[in-house]
Write a structure and sequence with these properties.
The protein has 419 residues and is an all-beta fold. It has no helices and 32 strands. It has strands spanning 6-11, 17-23, 27-28, 48-53, 63-69, 81-87, 92-98, 104-111, 128-131, 138-142, 145-149, 156-160, 167-175, 178-185, 188-193, 201-205, 210-218, 225-232, 237-248, 251-256, 279-282, 288-293, 298-303, 306-314, 320-326, 329-336, 349-356, 359-360, 366-370, 382-387, 394-400, 403-409. The strands form 6 sheets. Strands 13-14-15-16-20-19-18-17 form an 8-stranded mixed beta sheet, with no helix packed on it. Strands 1, 2, 25, 26, 27, 28 and 29 form a 7-stranded antiparallel beta sheet that branches. Strands 3-4-32-31-30 form a 5-stranded mixed beta sheet, with no helix packed on it. Strand 10 and strand 11 form a beta hairpin.
Length: 419
């Protein structure tokens, strides 16, 4: 066991940034016991963070994190949620959970290298994934393949999407009483019905203006709606628009809802649709979305009913995004793994920004990074707000190079573990 110091900043009510102090943590394997709180209490006055190596023996410098519901057959009552970790180098999907003392347990590790749709030969630097809070399943897409993993099973369901075209986005969507995975490639958007034993991808008929999709997400406030960031080929511009999805048998139709937001990045044609770190995440209020734009270095917040009404959060080098509740308040958590810290190249940092009535605070509530950063540490390559003791008591989880950082106490919330 070793102590690990973390740097944490917080915004005062006046809006200025100030140093909170040093956080302490412990390096532990999945089988190691938790550290004694009192060992580091003298330097952990505001924040306590534990670190663990690559979960389940995975050797990977590239993680993606998803929050999924705990499966009743696998989890104890204290484990209300599970953490899904996607590893690029080992091509695996691992399901993990925390016990009441903060110990990280490996529940299931599923290989992505061999699937019925063919092997996942590689994943992008920012893996394209989505999690379904209703069922606990996680979808991963790359190079025209879609894989869906369930924490209660040891196998992956998979399907081809449009002849190995580059993948752009994926989202779980409720429509007609069924759960679908919607997945976009540069050759179209597909609907996959999860209620059948053998997955089949149905190509959706879409408005002719949509030629290439950058990212997509499903709204929480209404079923059967997708928010899509795409290239409008006739206008040669980027647009963000809401589309209703109608699925009947082998027919899928996308219909654009009037109104679109135009102030999004559009890279060169030869880069399309790969904008690593572009994400569309539903906000917990149900009628709003958060969009990460790595090219402009910002996160934009949109009301679904009026996409042109927008608030902006500065997020240089944003590559990971999640949104959730801490108590009664909404927070946007953005990771910037390519940020230099104290002159250390690509050490990385994470910003936690409060949002009130759709308007973000002028400065982050927390800025997290390693107080002793390593070169190419990539802290913030993945982020999650994982409910811990209960749905209203989350912890911030941050992925770095071969490490996960679990924040059990910060200035935003008290000690989460049973102590």
């Amino acid at each position: 066991m070793r102590a690990r110091q973390m740097q944490v900043s917080t915004a005062s009510r006046a809006g200025s940034l100030g140093l909170l102090g040093l956080a302490a943590g412990a390096f532990l394997s999945l089988t190691a016991g938790a550290c004694n709180w009192m060992e580091f209490d003298d330097i952990a006055k505001d924040t306590w963070v534990d670190t663990t190596g690559a979960p389940g023996g995975i050797s990977s410098s590239d993680f993606a994190l998803a929050v999924v519901e705990a499966n009743n057959e696998l989890a104890s009552p204290a484990e209300t949620k599970q953490l899904a970790v996607i590893s690029r180098s080992d091509l695996t999907l691992a399901f993990l959970s925390y016990d009441a003392d903060g110990k990280l347990n490996s529940r299931q590790t599923i290989g992505l290298a061999t699937t019925s749709a063919g092997p996942f030969d590689s994943l992008p630097a920012s893996p394209i994934y989505a999690s379904d809070p209703r069922s606990g399943r996680v979808a991963v897409t790359a190079l025209g393949k879609l894989a869906v993993g369930d924490p209660s099973r040891s196998t992956i369901d998979s399907v081809m999407l449009g002849n190995s075209a580059n993948s752009a986005g994926v989202a779980f969507l409720e429509s007609g009483g069924k759960t679908y995975v919607m997945a976009s490639t540069e050759r179209g958007t597909f609907a996959v019905d999860l209620s059948v034993s053998t997955l089949t991808a149905t190509l959706c008929t879409a408005p002719t203006a949509i030629t290439r999709v950058v990212a997509l997400g499903a709204t929480l406030g209404a079923t059967g709606q997708l928010v899509m960031w795409y290239q409008n080929a006739p206008m040669m511009r980027a647009e963000l628009a809401v589309h209703t999805v109608a699925i009947a048998g082998a027919t899928c139709t996308l219909t654009a809802v009037p109104g679109a937001y135009l102030d999004l990045s559009l890279p060169n044609r030869d880069q399309y649709p790969l904008i690593e770190g572009a994400r569309i995440v539903a906000m917990p209020e149900g009628d709003a979305m958060a969009i990460s734009d790595p090219i402009k270095g910002q996160v934009t917040l949109h009301k679904v009913a009026m996409l042109s009404s927008v608030s902006t959060i500065s997020a240089p080098d944003v590559a990971a995004l999640t949104v959730g509740k801490i108590g009664a308040d909404t927070y946007v958590v953005s990771g910037a793994p390519n940020q230099d810290i104290d002159g250390v190249a690509n050490a990385g940092r994470v910003l936690v920004t409060k949002v009130t009535a759709g308007t973000p605070a002028a400065t982050p509530e927390l800025t997290l990074f390693d107080a002793s950063p390593d070169t190419e540490q990539r802290f913030g390559r993945a982020v999650a707000l994982l409910p811990f003791a209960d749905a209203a008591s989350p912890i911030v989880v941050v992925g770095a190079d071969d490490e996960l950082f679990s924040y059990f106490r910060t200035s935003l919330y008290g000690e989460r573990r049973a102590r």
